[in-house]
Amino acid sequence: MYVWPCAVVLAQYLWFHRRSLPGKAILEIGAGVSLPGILAAKCGAVVVLSDSSELPHCLEVCRQSCQMNNLPHLQVVGLTWGHISWDLLALPPQDIILASDVFFEPEDFEDILATIYFLMHKNPKVQLWSTYQVRSADWSLEALLYKWDMKCVRIPLESFDADKEDIAESTLPGRHTVEMLVISFAKDSL
After folding, report:
1. Which ranges of the sequence are coiled-coil (predicted)?
2. CA-to-CA distance for 190 and 188, rounded, in angstroms?
3. Number of Cβ atoms within 10 Å of the Cβ of 53
C-alpha cells in the first residue's frame, strides 16, 4: 500500500479544480491510501472512500489515511467491483467518482464499469475522473465503454500542469505514461 504515480496526477487534477469541489459528493473507488479522496475532502467535498470488501487490510489503510490527515469523519466502505452489496445500494448519488489506477488488470475492467454504470443511474450527470498508467497498447476500454453506453474524454496533462516528471514536489509521476480520463454517460440525459 503506497501512493501510485496515477494518484499524484489525479490529485493534481483535483487541486486544479479545487474551487469547484466544496459540497460535491465524491466517491473514491479502489482508494488504497486515498490521496485523491483525502485531497478532495480537504478541499471541502463530502467524500466516501472505498476499496474491496474482500480486502479488509485495504479498508484499514483507508481509515488510517483518514486519521493521519485529521479526517476521522470520512466514511469508508467496502465495495467489490461487479458485486451488488448493501454498501453499494446505500450510497447516495455522487457528483464525481474518483479512480486512480484501477484499470490495472484487464479482467477487472468490465466489473469496474458495471459498478460505475450502476452508480451513474443514481445520478446520470456523475463523472468518473480516472487516471491510469499505460502498461500495454493492447489494452483498451473503448469497446466496454460503448457496451455500457459511456463516453470518454482524454484530458491533456498539460492542461492542469501534470505533464512534468515531478508534481507538487513529488517525483512519483516520473517517466510513467499516465492518462487522465473523464468518463460519463454517452447520452446527455436518460
Report:
1. none
2. 7
3. 16
